[in-house]
Design a protein that fits this description.
Elements: E1 3-9, E2 13-20, E3 25-26, E4 31-34, H1 41-52, E5 61-65, E6 69-70, E7 73-74, E8 87-88, H2 89-97, E9 101-105, H3 106-117, E10 126-132, E11 136-142, E12 145-147, E13 156-157, E14 160-161, H4 162-166, H5 168-173, H6 178-196, E15 200-204, H7 211-214, E16 224-227, H8 234-247
Helix pairs in contact: 1-2, 3-8
Bound molecules: beta-D-glucopyranose.
Protein backbone atom coordinates (compact mmCIF):
# COMPACT_ATOMS: atom_id res chain seq x y z
CA UNK A 1 0.00 0.00 0.00
CA UNK A 2 1.20 3.51 -0.79
CA UNK A 3 0.89 5.43 2.47
CA UNK A 4 1.76 8.99 3.23
CA UNK A 5 0.78 11.36 5.99
CA UNK A 6 -1.22 14.58 5.76
CA UNK A 7 -1.76 17.38 8.27
CA UNK A 8 -4.36 20.11 7.79
CA UNK A 9 -3.51 23.31 9.66
CA UNK A 10 -6.62 25.42 10.05
CA UNK A 11 -7.59 28.52 11.99
CA UNK A 12 -9.34 26.48 14.69
CA UNK A 13 -7.96 22.94 14.47
CA UNK A 14 -4.90 20.96 13.37
CA UNK A 15 -5.74 17.45 12.23
CA UNK A 16 -3.75 14.67 10.68
CA UNK A 17 -3.91 11.06 9.55
CA UNK A 18 -2.12 8.54 7.35
CA UNK A 19 -3.57 8.42 3.84
CA UNK A 20 -3.99 5.61 1.34
CA UNK A 21 -2.90 7.44 -1.80
CA UNK A 22 -4.45 4.98 -4.21
CA UNK A 23 -7.92 5.45 -2.73
CA UNK A 24 -7.50 9.04 -1.54
CA UNK A 25 -8.82 8.05 1.87
CA UNK A 26 -7.63 8.10 5.48
CA UNK A 27 -6.38 4.72 6.70
CA UNK A 28 -6.95 5.54 10.37
CA UNK A 29 -9.19 7.90 12.23
CA UNK A 30 -7.67 11.37 12.19
CA UNK A 31 -6.28 12.99 15.34
CA UNK A 32 -7.14 16.59 16.05
CA UNK A 33 -5.83 19.25 18.43
CA UNK A 34 -6.97 22.85 18.78
CA UNK A 35 -4.86 25.41 16.93
CA UNK A 36 -2.84 27.29 19.57
CA UNK A 37 -3.92 30.91 20.06
CA UNK A 38 -1.99 32.94 19.10
CA UNK A 39 -1.04 30.66 16.24
CA UNK A 40 2.65 31.59 16.39
CA UNK A 41 5.00 29.29 14.44
CA UNK A 42 6.69 27.54 17.43
CA UNK A 43 3.35 26.72 19.06
CA UNK A 44 1.87 25.40 15.79
CA UNK A 45 4.98 23.29 15.09
CA UNK A 46 4.68 21.73 18.57
CA UNK A 47 0.98 20.97 17.95
CA UNK A 48 1.77 19.40 14.56
CA UNK A 49 4.44 17.19 16.20
CA UNK A 50 1.87 16.07 18.78
CA UNK A 51 -0.54 15.08 15.98
CA UNK A 52 2.05 13.18 13.91
CA UNK A 53 3.41 11.32 16.97
CA UNK A 54 0.02 9.73 17.59
CA UNK A 55 0.73 7.51 14.60
CA UNK A 56 3.46 5.09 13.67
CA UNK A 57 4.50 7.09 10.61
CA UNK A 58 8.06 7.56 9.41
CA UNK A 59 8.30 9.16 5.99
CA UNK A 60 7.16 12.21 4.06
CA UNK A 61 4.62 14.50 5.74
CA UNK A 62 2.46 16.97 3.82
CA UNK A 63 1.07 20.03 5.57
CA UNK A 64 -1.48 22.62 4.55
CA UNK A 65 -1.19 26.28 5.48
CA UNK A 66 -3.91 28.96 5.23
CA UNK A 67 -1.80 31.42 3.24
CA UNK A 68 0.46 31.75 0.21
CA UNK A 69 3.26 29.15 0.14
CA UNK A 70 6.05 29.33 -2.44
CA UNK A 71 9.02 26.92 -2.36
CA UNK A 72 8.12 25.90 1.19
CA UNK A 73 8.08 29.48 2.45
CA UNK A 74 4.91 30.94 3.92
CA UNK A 75 4.42 34.39 2.42
CA UNK A 76 1.10 35.65 3.80
CA UNK A 77 -0.98 35.03 6.92
CA UNK A 78 -4.45 36.58 6.59
CA UNK A 79 -6.07 34.52 9.35
CA UNK A 80 -3.07 33.28 11.36
CA UNK A 81 -0.24 34.82 13.37
CA UNK A 82 1.84 37.26 11.31
CA UNK A 83 5.03 35.53 12.52
CA UNK A 84 4.53 33.10 9.60
CA UNK A 85 5.23 35.75 6.98
CA UNK A 86 8.52 35.01 5.20
CA UNK A 87 9.25 31.83 7.17
CA UNK A 88 10.93 28.68 5.80
CA UNK A 89 7.99 26.58 6.99
CA UNK A 90 9.13 23.43 5.21
CA UNK A 91 12.56 23.64 6.87
CA UNK A 92 10.97 24.26 10.27
CA UNK A 93 8.57 21.29 10.05
CA UNK A 94 11.20 18.93 8.56
CA UNK A 95 13.59 19.67 11.39
CA UNK A 96 11.01 19.40 14.17
CA UNK A 97 9.49 16.18 12.81
CA UNK A 98 12.73 14.57 11.68
CA UNK A 99 10.93 13.68 8.44
CA UNK A 100 10.76 15.35 5.00
CA UNK A 101 7.97 17.95 5.01
CA UNK A 102 6.06 19.55 2.13
CA UNK A 103 3.91 22.63 2.76
CA UNK A 104 1.19 23.94 0.43
CA UNK A 105 -1.78 26.28 0.56
CA UNK A 106 -4.84 24.72 2.27
CA UNK A 107 -7.28 25.32 -0.58
CA UNK A 108 -4.74 24.05 -3.12
CA UNK A 109 -4.43 20.84 -1.08
CA UNK A 110 -8.20 20.41 -0.88
CA UNK A 111 -8.45 21.08 -4.61
CA UNK A 112 -5.78 18.54 -5.52
CA UNK A 113 -7.67 15.90 -3.53
CA UNK A 114 -11.06 16.79 -5.04
CA UNK A 115 -9.66 16.64 -8.58
CA UNK A 116 -8.02 13.28 -8.02
CA UNK A 117 -10.65 11.54 -5.89
CA UNK A 118 -13.72 13.74 -5.47
CA UNK A 119 -16.11 16.10 -7.21
CA UNK A 120 -13.59 17.21 -9.87
CA UNK A 121 -12.52 13.73 -11.00
CA UNK A 122 -11.66 13.59 -14.72
CA UNK A 123 -13.00 17.11 -15.26
CA UNK A 124 -11.28 18.87 -18.20
CA UNK A 125 -10.90 22.62 -18.73
CA UNK A 126 -11.06 25.26 -16.02
CA UNK A 127 -12.17 24.00 -12.61
CA UNK A 128 -12.33 26.15 -9.51
CA UNK A 129 -12.41 24.68 -6.02
CA UNK A 130 -13.54 27.20 -3.39
CA UNK A 131 -13.40 26.55 0.35
CA UNK A 132 -15.70 28.53 2.61
CA UNK A 133 -14.56 28.74 6.24
CA UNK A 134 -12.78 31.42 8.29
CA UNK A 135 -11.69 32.81 4.94
CA UNK A 136 -12.38 31.85 1.34
CA UNK A 137 -9.73 29.63 -0.21
CA UNK A 138 -9.35 28.97 -3.93
CA UNK A 139 -7.69 26.36 -6.11
CA UNK A 140 -7.67 26.90 -9.88
CA UNK A 141 -7.07 24.03 -12.31
CA UNK A 142 -6.65 23.88 -16.06
CA UNK A 143 -7.01 20.34 -17.43
CA UNK A 144 -6.14 19.00 -13.98
CA UNK A 145 -3.05 21.16 -13.50
CA UNK A 146 -3.03 23.47 -10.50
CA UNK A 147 -2.20 27.17 -10.69
CA UNK A 148 -1.12 27.54 -7.04
CA UNK A 149 -1.83 30.37 -4.60
CA UNK A 150 -4.61 32.10 -6.54
CA UNK A 151 -5.99 33.69 -3.32
CA UNK A 152 -9.35 34.54 -4.87
CA UNK A 153 -10.84 35.06 -1.40
CA UNK A 154 -9.15 38.44 -1.46
CA UNK A 155 -10.82 39.70 -4.62
CA UNK A 156 -12.66 42.95 -4.00
CA UNK A 157 -16.40 42.68 -3.54
CA UNK A 158 -18.43 45.82 -2.81
CA UNK A 159 -15.23 47.60 -1.83
CA UNK A 160 -14.22 44.90 0.67
CA UNK A 161 -12.06 41.80 0.79
CA UNK A 162 -14.50 39.19 -0.58
CA UNK A 163 -13.92 36.76 2.30
CA UNK A 164 -15.00 39.44 4.78
CA UNK A 165 -18.43 39.40 3.08
CA UNK A 166 -18.97 35.88 1.88
CA UNK A 167 -16.96 33.37 3.99
CA UNK A 168 -18.89 31.16 6.39
CA UNK A 169 -17.27 33.13 9.23
CA UNK A 170 -18.95 36.24 7.76
CA UNK A 171 -22.28 34.38 7.87
CA UNK A 172 -21.76 33.76 11.61
CA UNK A 173 -20.37 37.23 12.33
CA UNK A 174 -23.28 39.03 10.69
CA UNK A 175 -25.86 36.42 11.77
CA UNK A 176 -27.00 35.97 8.17
CA UNK A 177 -29.77 33.56 7.22
CA UNK A 178 -28.97 30.91 4.60
CA UNK A 179 -30.88 33.02 2.03
CA UNK A 180 -28.91 36.17 2.88
CA UNK A 181 -25.61 34.35 2.80
CA UNK A 182 -26.47 32.58 -0.47
CA UNK A 183 -27.06 36.05 -1.98
CA UNK A 184 -23.53 37.06 -1.00
CA UNK A 185 -22.07 33.79 -2.30
CA UNK A 186 -23.89 34.39 -5.61
CA UNK A 187 -22.33 37.85 -5.90
CA UNK A 188 -18.94 36.31 -5.27
CA UNK A 189 -19.52 33.52 -7.81
CA UNK A 190 -20.62 36.13 -10.39
CA UNK A 191 -17.26 37.81 -9.95
CA UNK A 192 -15.12 34.67 -10.25
CA UNK A 193 -17.23 33.40 -13.14
CA UNK A 194 -16.69 36.68 -14.98
CA UNK A 195 -12.93 36.40 -14.50
CA UNK A 196 -12.33 32.69 -15.19
CA UNK A 197 -15.40 31.15 -16.88
CA UNK A 198 -14.92 27.82 -15.09
CA UNK A 199 -16.88 24.78 -16.34
CA UNK A 200 -17.15 23.48 -12.80
CA UNK A 201 -17.05 25.09 -9.35
CA UNK A 202 -16.58 22.75 -6.38
CA UNK A 203 -17.72 24.18 -3.05
CA UNK A 204 -15.68 22.89 -0.10
CA UNK A 205 -14.78 23.89 3.44
CA UNK A 206 -16.61 23.01 6.65
CA UNK A 207 -19.89 24.51 5.45
CA UNK A 208 -20.03 22.12 2.46
CA UNK A 209 -21.34 19.55 4.98
CA UNK A 210 -24.56 21.59 4.92
CA UNK A 211 -24.64 22.09 1.14
CA UNK A 212 -28.32 21.15 0.89
CA UNK A 213 -29.10 24.27 2.94
CA UNK A 214 -27.57 26.74 0.50
CA UNK A 215 -26.64 25.22 -2.88
CA UNK A 216 -30.32 25.01 -3.92
CA UNK A 217 -30.67 28.73 -3.08
CA UNK A 218 -27.95 29.80 -5.53
CA UNK A 219 -29.04 31.13 -8.89
CA UNK A 220 -28.53 29.18 -12.11
CA UNK A 221 -25.28 30.03 -13.91
CA UNK A 222 -23.10 28.74 -16.74
CA UNK A 223 -20.74 26.87 -14.42
CA UNK A 224 -21.96 23.73 -12.68
CA UNK A 225 -21.72 24.30 -8.93
CA UNK A 226 -21.36 21.12 -6.87
CA UNK A 227 -20.43 20.23 -3.28
CA UNK A 228 -17.00 18.84 -2.46
CA UNK A 229 -17.01 15.10 -1.87
CA UNK A 230 -14.06 14.63 0.46
CA UNK A 231 -15.38 17.28 2.85
CA UNK A 232 -13.22 17.59 5.93
CA UNK A 233 -10.64 15.09 4.75
CA UNK A 234 -9.72 16.92 1.53
CA UNK A 235 -6.89 18.96 3.09
CA UNK A 236 -5.29 15.93 4.73
CA UNK A 237 -5.54 13.84 1.55
CA UNK A 238 -4.20 16.64 -0.70
CA UNK A 239 -1.31 17.36 1.67
CA UNK A 240 -0.33 13.68 1.72
CA UNK A 241 -0.50 13.57 -2.10
CA UNK A 242 1.80 16.61 -2.35
CA UNK A 243 4.28 15.06 0.09
CA UNK A 244 4.36 11.80 -1.86
CA UNK A 245 4.91 13.66 -5.15
CA UNK A 246 7.76 15.66 -3.65
CA UNK A 247 9.39 12.45 -2.43
CA UNK A 248 9.22 10.79 -5.85
C1 LIG B 1 -5.91 32.91 2.82
C2 LIG B 1 -5.76 31.77 1.85
C3 LIG B 1 -6.48 30.53 2.39
C4 LIG B 1 -7.92 30.86 2.75
C5 LIG B 1 -8.64 29.68 3.36
C6 LIG B 1 -7.39 33.14 3.11
O1 LIG B 1 -7.53 34.19 4.02
O2 LIG B 1 -5.34 34.10 2.30
O3 LIG B 1 -4.42 31.48 1.63
O4 LIG B 1 -6.44 29.53 1.43
O5 LIG B 1 -7.98 31.95 3.64
O6 LIG B 1 -8.03 29.28 4.56
Amino acid sequence: MTAAFGVDIGGSGIKGAPVDLARGALTEERYKVLTPQPSAPEAVVAAVCEVVRQFDHHGPVGLTFPGVVVDGRTRTAANVDKGWIGLDAEGLFSQALGMPATVLNDADAAGVAELAHGAGRDEPGVVLVLTFGTGIGSALFVDGTLVPNTELGHLELRGKDAERRASSAAKERHELSWEQWAGRVDEYLDLVEKLFSPRLVVIGGGVSRKHEKFLPLLKAREARVVPAELRNDAGIVGAAMAAARAAD
